[in-house]
Amino acid sequence: MKTVKLTTLLTLLLFVTSQINSQNADVDTEEQAVIEVMKSYKDAIQNLTTDGTFELFTEDATIFEQGKVEGTYKEYINGHLGPELGHFKSFTFSDYKINANVNLPYAYTTENYLYKIVLKGDKAKGTEERTIKSKGVATSILEKIEGKWKIIHSHTSFKKL
User: Fold this and answer.
1) What gap in Å lies between CA 18 and CA 14, rounded to an integer?
2) How far is CA 102 from the centre of its chain?
3) How many CB atoms lie within 10 A of CB 58?
4) Dihedral angle over CA of 6, 22, 96, 156, nearest 10
5) Domain that holds residue 39
6) How remote is the C-alpha of 60 from its chain's centroid?
7) Which of 93, 123, 146, 154 gets the highest tally of CB atoms within 10 A of its CB?
8) CA angle, corner 79, sides to 116 and 88, nearest 5?
9) β-strand pairing of 68-72 with 57-65
10) Domain containing 69 — which CATH number?
11) Domain count, the chain
12) pLDDT per position as a tens digit, 22-39
């Protein structure tokens, strides 16, 4: 009888342990998927494009930058970032660090980085090329919708170096 109880207890313990390990593996996989979404966005900006970024955000995603409500992602691109990218010669990130926390169906990210923007000169306007260096931080909330992670909220801020 003791052997049966011990075997049952060990089987139950192994089952519970395997379930915990499986859940940890799932969370790790989900965290990596979230990080990939955020890095895809960062990479697009570094390439001075918004191509492929609209699918990373929900239609009603809210964007905040430097204490200002920018509106939806589409409004942010059309009224702010899109036109800005046309004035940039380059936009590079360095010392990039990201953390992701998943609590399905949501995830929360924090990003810390340095960035350097080189603005194009404009002879017609009499402006010369110049460089802006800043330290930035961003927080984003993502939701897993139909099997894909989408940004539903993003807030960035920076201070010039």
Assistant:
1) 6
2) 13
3) 17
4) -110
5) 2-160
6) 16
7) 154
8) 25
9) antiparallel
10) 3.10.450.50
11) 1
12) 445 488 999 999 999 999
